[in-house]
Amino acid sequence: MFGFGKDKKKDGSAGTGTPPEKLQEALAADLAKVMDPDMKRELQSLGGIRDLKATPEEVSFTLELHLHNPPHLQQLQDELKKVIASHAPDAKANITMAGNVRAAGGGAWNKVGVPGVKNVILVGSGKGGVGKSTVASNLAVALAKDGAAVGLLDADIYGPSLPTMFGLNNGTRPTSKDGKTMEPLDRYGVKLISIGFLTDANTPMVWRGPMVASACMQLFKDVNWAPLDYLVVDLPPGTGDIQLSLSQQIAVAGAVLVTTPQDVALADVVRAKSMFDKVGIPTLGLVENMSFFVCDGCNKRHEIFDSGGQRNADRLSVPFLGALPLETPVRQGGDEGTPVVVRNPSSAAAVGLREVAQQVALRIALLAVDAPREEPPPPKEPGKNPLLRVMN
Q: I want to staple 290 with a disulfide (CB 3.0 to 4.6 A). Which of 131, 274, 281, 326 is the partner?
């Protein structure tokens, strides 16, 4: 809430503002024309102004935003103040800001929605070793720190890394209230699930492709995720069974591509982008990880693996979400179980990752504006969950 005002004239009028009987109508019309600086849309097209009440003494309303932490919120507030002051110079302004993330899945919810989840976000690359898990983990935590309800699903059945990256000891298990569904673990405000929580860390998953894909689908559908604004999914390398099953069974809002600057990494990203295109999953943008290194001694930027994130994003015709530096705190955070956005929030990598999170949320919001306004379906009565037997 914020307020401002001026002294009234001696006759009790609202200065040179709009006549009281027309004030609310005039304010509603002009407030609706204010441009959201992040969405680049007028508020009337976003349904943003609610419960407007206006008198010469006080103007109050709720501003419903599609983002929990808009980058240019102050600019938007200033524009709203100007409009109010132009009609009621002496009024106190009481504006409530409310974040309300909408689903970008559209009509697909009726067929393949994850119960209670508004937006599923895939993080992939087509190649291992480029930092997908690091980006996915920090993206989830950054979104949660901005105020969103967030879950993180480790879809790498053969090589789960989420337990290590969140500091959950071997033997940590999800609970089940009914023997049919799993309750996700919670850390840093993020709901977590991984096959690594169901098996011993030293036990290899010697499963064929169809079994792996089936197990992955259960992590989506037999877990009590609700309610979530975003479910971030850390994909395994490649474009195989899990990716194909996801595209066929899950309503995905969009995918984030992660690469390193080398051409060999980018070649795999090109294939991943092509796969998402073929299955109708929007690409939200490209993140260039390990883009550069800044020397502690000379403070000079060194591009160890070459560079060109924006250029590569242009080649793929996707937005460039940001370049992340190669920093020791990122590795330390992953090994110690504390994502860098929590462990070293002022580091360059943490700042970059938070900016990536804001860009991802913005692009989801833009997709949702044009999508049918449907909420995800309520959880259904589950059947037996074979994965729960793995814990015993």
A: 326
The contacts of residue 376 (CB under 8 Å, 6+ apart) are 103, 105, 109, 113, 114, 115, 116, 117, 118, 226
On the CB side of 30, CA atoms within 13 Å amount to 18
**Would you state the structure tokens that stand for residue 273, as one six-digit string?**
């982008």
Take residue 253 and report the two structure tokens written for it: 């809002």
C-alpha dist (Å) from residue 256 to 153, 238, 279, 353: 15, 14, 15, 13
Tell me the C-alpha distance between 291 and 303, whole Å. 7
Residue 324 φ/ψ, nearest 5 degrees: -105, 135
- Ordered by start, the domain boundaries in the chain are 20-99, 106-369
Three-state DSSP state, 356 = helix
Cα-to-chain-centroid distance, residue 256: 10
Class for the domain spanning 20-99: alpha beta
Q: pLDDT, tens digit, for every residue of 131-187?
A: 899 999 999 999 999 999 999 999 988 889 999 999 998 778 898 888 888 999 999
Task: Please state the separation of Cα 356 from the chain's center in Å.
Answer: 9
| Beta carbons of 64 and 94 less than 8 angstroms apart | no
Structure tokens at 333: 């955070």
Q: What is the pLDDT of residues 201-230, one digit of tens each?
A: 777 777 777 788 888 889 998 999 999 999
pTM of the model: 0.85
